[in-house]
Specification:
This is Plasmid segregation protein ParM. InterPro entries: ALP_N, ATPase_NBD, MreB-like_C, PRTRC_protein-D. It comes from Pseudorhodoferax soli. It holds the Pfam family ALP_N. By secondary structure, this protein is α/β, with parallel strands linked by helices. It folds into 2 domains: 140 residues, Nucleotidyltransferase, domain 5 (2-Layer Sandwich), CATH 3.30.420.40; 143 residues, Nucleotidyltransferase, domain 5 (2-Layer Sandwich), CATH 3.30.420.40. Helix content is 35%, strand content 26%. The chain is built from 8 helices and 19 strands. Strands 12, 13, 14, 15, 18 and 19 form a 6-stranded mixed beta sheet that branches. The protein has a 5-stranded mixed beta sheet with strand order 3-2-1-8-11, with helices on both faces. Helix 3 crosses helix 8. The longest helix has 27 residues. The chain is flat.
Amino acid sequence: MNMVVRSIDVGFGNTKFVVGHSDKDIKCACFPSLAYTSAKDPSVRPSAERRRTVAVPIDGLYYEVGPDVHLAADNFRATQLHDQYVETPEYLALARGALSYMKVDVIDLLMVGLPVSSFQARKGFLERLMTGVHALGGGKTVEVRRAVALAQPQGALVYYTAAYHKQRTIEHEQSLIVDPGSRTFDWLLSRGMRLVLKVSNSVNRGMSDVLKTIAQEISSEIGRPYSDLPAIDTALRTGKPLLIYQKPFDLTPILPTARAVARGAVSSMMEWVTEDYSIQNVILVGGGAFMFKDAIKAAFPNHKIQVVREPMHANVKGFQIAGSNLMEAESQESRRDAARQ
């Protein structure tokens, strides 16, 4: 019987998850890491008002999460950008929302991730939190029989090794994985596949800081508070103009202040990563890769910067590969034990 392995990466900006895995492809999906609460189940609204969300019941409240969660938004943007994020009901709602979209009843192994700075302190807690039977709403449940947490950039290292066919050489190389996320800017140094945790860390200087800096500059220009961070993010990623009061707003004069945020994060990393001449692979992943790429290149002028394909999903794809490899290794060990008996 095939064992079911799935992966979730609940980030501060987006919740990424695996919905299917074959030898040729890992199918991923995502939705914003936002959860809005209500006392009544919002999924029972009339069909004309329904949206692509699920209502997750936790402690007497319903947490609405999913791709159309912005339609449930009020004036307060319910983000959870703090170090205890993993311990909040919002985190659990996002994770259970991802489980709901996987459409399976049992998961034999669930892989999850944590920022580098909180990995050692919260690994055990997160594994316990995600193990067991989870109520998904509408009378549906899923059983997670086992959960394993990895540092988020560790997933990217696994994905890079597999996607770029580095299995034979990576063991003899030193790699730096840089992961600019929404809230945290993570980096991880490895020798082969072994982590060098004393040189790996995170700083709270991610894409949300870039977007807030731009929003502050826009506010000064238009003379009133501006807070549509998703609109700024879309404009930066697509190159399409940001519309304010129905007119295109030129972000070009503001971009140097945004790039200064990225340089500050990279400077913090370089205080830890001092022996850059020993690094063979500099791997850039994460949803903020496009904004931080120039600062990384400036910090490593003698290196080729490898920006992986689909950088936002690199971590969760690596989790999936690592989980599948773990299950296969354990299965082989069981077969060997049975043969010796």
